[in-house]
From TrEMBL:
One of its GO terms (molecular function) is transmembrane transporter activity. Residues 215-406 form the Major facilitator superfamily (MFS) profile domain. Keywords: Membrane, Transmembrane, Transmembrane helix. InterPro entries: MFS, MFS_dom, MFS_trans_sf. It comes from Sinosporangium album. It is a multi-pass membrane protein. Gene3D superfamilies: MFS general substrate transporter like domains (1.20.1250.20). The keyword Transmembrane helix applies. This is Predicted arabinose efflux permease, MFS family. The chain crosses the membrane at residues 22-42, 48-67, 79-98, 104-125, 146-166, 172-191, 211-230, 250-269, 281-299, 305-326, 338-357, 369-391. The keyword Cell inner membrane does not apply. Pfam families: MFS_1.
């Protein structure tokens, strides 16, 4: 399976932005759960913890397309460095307010700043790959598959690390690691100017946003629902583990969810597909919904870990094909913003999922709250199938034609 990945990193500068991009992306899987663990320890309420985490996610979701547009216009380095420094300051402020026992409303206020200054680094890395692999769809597929694997490595390691730090060392430890990795990784990434995509000259493309493209809008709705699944499962799983006397295993359970996606991502990226991007996407989303169904029936921590592992197998194919579809639909001069809309949609979904998951967990218990995640997964599947025609790319074959994979 490693064959297609060989030679991907031979070009000058590629290894540098891949490594720094990995370090800078570690917070994306640690920030939410670290906030939940800290705020729930301070307030004793998963509802409050979920609401603060949701505030962070909403602020990120709103700001991601804006920062993406700025990057397209002025370049990654000029935008990422000041935003990242502000993010580090906001995280420091959140921890200080928590330590000082400040009123709960101040945690929401600083949470807005934390989210607004968070960087959609995955979009920035993929924009570099799109520039590097321009004109070579096979190389771009492999590169996007590799990035999906990196995302899942982050989601395997991040929750387990955050949970271990918060439960074994200090409830603040996870956010300290988030701060260090975000600042060091992102600034190191931004300083590698030789591999960043060229900026978009003023007036070179239409001023319209990529979200006005019907296919991008449909993908955004699907990823909104997917984000709600991720956000609710993150919070509910922490509560599920605690209710079963195994709170320290919550990170391992979430790592299992991402681990299934990691394995499928490696396999998916190693294949040369004849089936169209659209077909791959609209088949993967319903399979994900089917994989989620058993979670509402499980009452054991080990069994839940296995179920989450199996359910995760469809995540990477959805992400890989989703980003690839955006790359084909959006003009080059708006590519970073276009990809950021995927992050925005996931961010809004995570926010809604964290809030709803927290409320439902407090009201009905973790096992029943998992039903919300299932409903969101089904909504994603129905939306992708109903709007499949909007995802057709002119040069791709029709679904009516026979399609096989090698």
């Amino acid at each position: 399976m490693v064959g297609p990945y060989r030679g991907l990193f031979n070009a000058p500068g590629v290894k540098g932005f891949v490594i720094s991009g990995f370090v800078g992306r570690l917070p994306m899987s640690m920030l939410g759960i670290s906030v939940i663990l800290l705020i729930s320890a301070i307030t004793g309420s998963y509802g409050t913890a979920g609401a603060v985490a949701a505030t962070v996610s909403v602020a990120f979701a709103i700001s991601a397309p804006l920062s993406g547009r700025l990057v397209d216009r002025f370049g990654q380095a000029r935008v990422l460095i000041p935003i990242t420094l502000a993010h580090g300051g906001a995280l420091t402020g959140l921890m200080l307010l928590a330590e000082l026992g400040a009123p709960v409303w101040t945690l929401f206020a600083i949470g807005i700043l934390v989210g607004a200054t968070a960087v959609s680094l995955g979009s920035m890395v993929r924009a570099r790959w799109a520039h590097f692999a321009a004109g070579d769809p096979t190389k771009l597929h492999t590169a996007f598959s590799f990035e999906s694997v990196i995302d899942e490595v982050v989601f395997v390691a991040g929750p387990a690390l955050a949970t271990a730090l918060a439960t074994q060392i200090s409830e603040y430890a996870g956010l300290v690691v988030v701060l260090l990795s975000a600042v060091i990784g992102t600034i190191t990434f931004a300083l590698q100017r030789g591999t960043q995509p060229p900026v978009r000259p003023k007036g070179s493309v239409s001023g319209r946003s990529p979200i006005t493209i019907p296919g991008v809008a449909l993908l955004s709705i699907v990823f909104l629902a997917m984000g709600a699944v991720f956000g609710s499962i993150d919070l509910i799983t922490v509560a599920f583990a605690e209710q079963h006397g195994s709170k320290g295993h919550a990170g391992t359970m979430l790592a299992a969810f991402a681990g299934g996606s990691l394995i499928s991502g490696i396999w998916f990226g190693s294949r040369q597909w004849k089936i169209s991007l659209r077909s791959r996407f609209i088949r993967a989303v319903p399979i994900f919904a089917l994989g989620i169904m058993p979670i509402v029936f499980v009452t054991s921590v080990p069994v839940m870990a296995v179920v989450l592992f199996i359910a995760g197998f469809s995540i990477s194919p959805i992400l890989i094909t989703g980003y690839a579809l955006v790359e084909r639909m959006v003009p080059n001069g708006l590519l970073t913003e276009g990809m950021a809309w995927i992050s925005t949609s996931v961010g809004f979904g995570v926010a809604a999922g964290a809030w709803a998951g927290g409320r439902l967990t407090d009201m009905y218990g973790a096992s029943n709250a998992y039903g919300f995640a299932l409903v969101c997964a089904l909504l994603a599947a129905v939306t992708s199938l109903a709007g499949a025609a909007l995802l057709r790319i002119p040069e791709e074959p029709s679904l009516a034609a026979p399609e096989v994979s090698t």
